[in-house]
Fold each of these.
Amino acid sequence: MTHADVASSASDRDRPAPTDPPERTPVGAASHSARRRTVDLLLHFGLLPVLLLVAVVTFSLIEPRFLTPLNGTNVSRQLSFLLIVTIGQMLVLLTAEIDMSVGATIALTSVVSSKVMTHVGGDGAGVLLLGVAAGLVVGLVVGLLNGLVVARFKVPSFIVTIGTSSVAVGVALLVSKGSPVTGLPPDFTRVLGTAQVAGVPVSFVVALGVVALVYVLLSWSVLGHYLFAVGGGEDAARLVGVPVLRTKVTAFVLCSMLTSLAGVLLTARVSSGQPTLGQEYVILAIAAAVLGGTSFFGGEGRLGLVAVGALLLVVLSNGMNLIRVPSYTQQVVLGSLLIAAVIIDRLRARAAW
């Protein structure tokens, strides 16, 4: 090797090694990532409040009566019934099941509680409490029937609760002979139907109490953890010692009893026992729960957003009534929202995967 070769070799060793150019994120990929984060944010946190805000602003601009105190009272009263039923439906959905019998449970509760009060006769707190207790017993029986059949025999809850719904409606029609049950105690309709506490309807106060109790149940009780665990996967939950059968039965019982509570409040509001009362709450409760982030696949649900979902549906219904939207058009809107809720649930599930 010549001296020139040695010098050249030494020069090459002393020269700093070339470095790779810094990687640049393609503009399209960065834009796609930003859009994905935005969509995820809307799906998990921001979509529902935005829809509610748009609905409130739109109806306020179209109809001045929308933001009046009187209409606020009407909205809170309508919300109370739907919110209680939706919370019950949410508890069942958390276990990856569904209850299609909530409408029939309301009807049967209305007839049975009314029949008991009119049969006993009289007025006062005793008769009122007896009517409420009779309604809650209806919920207990329906919930036990649904839960035991679904959990013990592993029959799809959709089929079981449709069957239960048919039975409950039939019993309600038989007991009432197809006619409204009238002559309810005045204290019952006054206290639970029209009375207010500091300007707030009693039914809404009851609904707020239900929200508080269920929040405690889901956040700090063992049963709350069991509900999420069963919905996340029955086999895994069973392996860690979760009583799957008992948890599912409890979820159905709580759902039916909350639904019966709403049925009692609705009965007081309409001042009679109606064998066809509450049929619309089947779709409304499912739509509100799913719009609020409760998954059809179980194991996921946030109580606060479920309440917002119920409020959105009530605001839409109230606003459309004020601006005289035909009832069949409202059905189209409701059905579209339910389809949108299912799509959102699928997108949310894909994002989780």
Note: The CA atoms of residues 198 and 224 lie 33 Å apart.
Amino acid sequence: MTSAHDVDQQKLVDHMSLQLKDKITMPEWARFVKTGVSRERQPEHQDWYYARSASVLRKIYLDGPVGTERLRTYYGGLHRRGHKPAHFARGGGKIIRTILQQLEGAGYVKKEKKGRSVTPVGQKFVDSCAKNTK
């Protein structure tokens, strides 16, 4: 049986993002925000929200119960500060929280005592996308 561990990460996220377009909706404010302090501009890709949602679902599937702070660390980057040395900055939390809430509403993720984990429906979704990924 093929799982998310066996297939290419980029292809899996692309396939899952196409499937998630029917399940979740991109908030109106998400077109104008940066994804973190370390970024200079908002994302240029039109469907970046669905790709990030698929990536978050994959990350929860692999690392299992994961909270917002840990995901913020994963999606962070180097904050360039001009002449001063660059430092690490975490990613935006509002984006991750709304994605988690929408995935929870779709039934793919459930809230636990420490973070969120994938439900059996979400596991079946990720496994079927991994199986159909070429």
Note: The longest strand covers residues 84-89.
Amino acid sequence: MKEKTKKKFKFTKSKAEVTVMASLGVLFLVVFAYLPMFGLVLAFKDGDNVLNISRAIFRSDWVGFDNFVEFLHDKDFLNVLLNTLGLNLLQLAINFPAPILFALLLNEVRNGKTKRVIQAITYLPHFLSWVIFAGIVFALVNMDTGIINQILLKTGIVKEAVDIKGDPKYFWALIIITSLLKGIGWGSIIYMAALAGVDPTLYEAATMDGANRWHKAVYISIPSIAPTIVLFFILQISSLLNNGTEQILAFQTQSNLDRSEVIDTFVLKYGIRKNMYSYASAVGFFKSVIALILIASSNFVSKKITGQGVIY
């Protein structure tokens, strides 16, 4: 038998373009993800209030785990941790399944024009910055001129105007509702794409067997997009200590600080405003370690239960 001749690799223009694009992605990860990891050494040094970052990294005294101990004994630690976990668990329970349900409902809309209009309306808030979106929300919930208070008063739900913006007890609800409004449309895109890949003959066969829309959604649509759901669920679990800093800062006021201070804003304030680089690095390192444990644990449990996971 004649030996198969090896194909000579030819570096074409199209391959060069793909290589350049991929190289830019790798470069981005190196510059913004891997190189900054060297700064984690600050978590084990006394580099607070040292204006020169390089001097803080290379010349500061080694203090071991002192910064971590200081954070764990901080009087605000428990409150910050509870706020972070509370908000993220609520978003996991409410905001995570919302795009899935929305995608399933949108998949049932047969009129193409109607579907496009709904998609355009629900996608639009995603492209607004949190500063603009928060400004719109604050105008709507204003105690004197906001339409929300006007509706609540006229319907008799409340007897006097409610300070939704400043009252701490409304902050979590404000964050959940606004993140839901802003992200439900955009978050459904990936699930709509997954649903588009489902074999239409499965639905046709189910129709012939007498299945209604509910049966098709439960027994065909959801199982078909289950791998996508599991993937995003595991990633969401790993982000239980992450909050949208832009969103929190946009809605945070001095009056609701007890309910709005989370780990991300805590790190930002101590690291940038107070120049406590080592302390902030220790808090960030602590959060990253917990995230690693969470993603590994959730991936392990998911593989045992569903046979699917992120890490193989």
Note: The mean pLDDT is 87.
Amino acid sequence: MGQDLDRERRWRAEVLSNLVIGDAVAIPAARGGDFLGLYTQAPPGKLAVLLVHGIGVHPDHGVIGILRGRLAEMGYTTLSIQMPVLAADARGEDYLPLLAAAAARIDAGRGWLVAKGHRALALLSHSLGATMAQEYFRSTAGKGFVGWIAVGAPGEAGMAAPGVPVLDVYGEHDLPAVMSGVAARRASVAAVPGGGQRVVRGADHFYTGRESELAAVVRDFLEKLPR
């Protein structure tokens, strides 16, 4: 099952026709072409946040779309990027062959922000996006980010990127795949100074109706990161 570029193009058209917050930008891809980014520039002085969505959606979808707007309102520059997608019926494990391509997009988004003059960057991922972020940290040893917020990360995979504080966030009513790894992730993030774990009470995997509480948790962590 290969990367569904036609679906990605359809997502781009849908996002552009409904975009309200920020500007659509084309991020050059490592192997030619480009992919969609949604960029909202805030006044200097705070971190820039690169946002990575979950399985099969787009950079303005659901909780990631809401967070990119809320964080911009809080004074953070945000760049939400289109991650590789498969067909709509693909499962999480079907995405494993795309992890290297996903990591390359994260690195391209990081480079784009640096070229815009941003020096202190944080990474925020949701759901399968956390698995993609783990691949980025594994392949780059944490290059380019001062912190990582993993929201709704599945499984028990280690969350500690070398030298980078990690905040593991999950909902009180999150998916079984997320809840099963809570203890293992708590131990992992504690291995790096500044890391931690937070639960958002009343929240499901998509933080429906709890987006404000999630944004406040993220802000509290970002404020403690080095500039």
Note: The chain is about 35% helix and 20% strand.
